[in-house]
Amino acid sequence: MTSLQNYINGSFVDAAGSETIDVVSPATGDVVTVSPVSTDVDVDAAFGAARTAFTTWKRTTPSQRQGMLLQIADAMEANADELVEAQHRNTGQPREAIRVEEVITGADHLRFFAGAARVLEGKSAGEYLEGHTSWIRREPIGVVAQVTPWNYPLMMAIWKIAPALAAGNTVVLKPSDTTPESTLVLARLTQGILPDGVLNVILGNASTGQLMTEHPVPGLVSITGSVRAGMAVAASAAKNLHRAHLELGGKAPAIVFADADIAATAEGVAGAGYFNAGQDCTAVTRVLVHESIHDEFVAELVKAAEATKTGDAEDPDAYYGPLNNASHFEKVSTVIESLPAHAKVVTGGHRVGDKGFYYAPTVITGVNQIDACVQEETFGPVLTVQTFSTEEQAIEMANDVPYALASSVWTSDHGTALRVSRDLDFGAVWINTHILLAAEMPHGGFKMSGYGKDLSSYGLEDYTRIKHVMSAL
Q: Average of pLDDT values for 439-452?
């Protein structure tokens, strides 16, 4: 089986080393391709190409960068089938979900950043000291190192690449070792659009990522991944005082008040909890429901869960596909197997089928705030349900986890929605909905969920540096 290649300086090239990784389809458990583990030789080559390209790329105008990003967006849509198939081989996700949520939406996000590149603003020039004029330059950082996860491989590549390139940086990006193929197709689509060396893709495992984050060239290191991976990246980047941009894990609560529409809320919570097999750091994982409606709500939630189907992408009724890999399947299974005696699995909690890594939509009741299934990220199609009696208690329980990425409030009372959204300690709060994102709005968390923003003008600004220039009159 032919090994995949790195994309360096505008060309696909073999990795220097001989170590490889089998890329496995989580839908079948079969090996679909082989990926190299890039070494320091490959990483040096990629950063060298990016550094050389930056000398001219940084001189391009926003309108020139906009034109290239728009061409890439058009190329994505024109080659949607190839992108979908490449990703499906690595993730087992339903093809239509990849097409809509990553190809079409990814192209839209590219177009947003193409336009955002032309509207960066700073303070106006002025005389802040007598006889001197000052102004602000907002400049690209330089070369940036980026690491993307396996849950949305193409979309996460766009979230990294688009703002970095729009701001005038060059990129060395490493996709997850389990899902490299759609990122490589994207890289190929940029050939003839981006100058050589502006975008480079390096394949490998955690050791390759460490080589990238510890490398002296990049001025910014950005990762979307687990808290453990983010902490490792931050520690590595600190050795050279690189800036870090971290979008990490989540443990999103959905707070359901007694005046909420119970059936509609249960359906919305299930949809936001089980989408992409719950492999989404913003997915609902904890349901906090008012004690007066607990039994009725759980009944509706179980109904919604049991109406949610997982299965092969060829099944038009499948809402989500498999968990991404064998190791993660074991992790999710262990969470259920290790539940305390007071917890009750009311539906799900088991494998689906006899091949692949499919897991049933799961609802767990009777859990306590200190339980591991409440405090620690599962990253699977698993919802826990707890009760609260007062608004204050609900907020305290929601905030009482290490993560602070996303949350939602479900109520028909406007005042309740405003108060609770104010007091929730999360980077995003949805009201009577959950998980939806817009290119114009920022995405990023607090606490152990990391720092920095993706999407929006705030995400673009994260890929810039600010310089003060003063001139004597």
A: 97
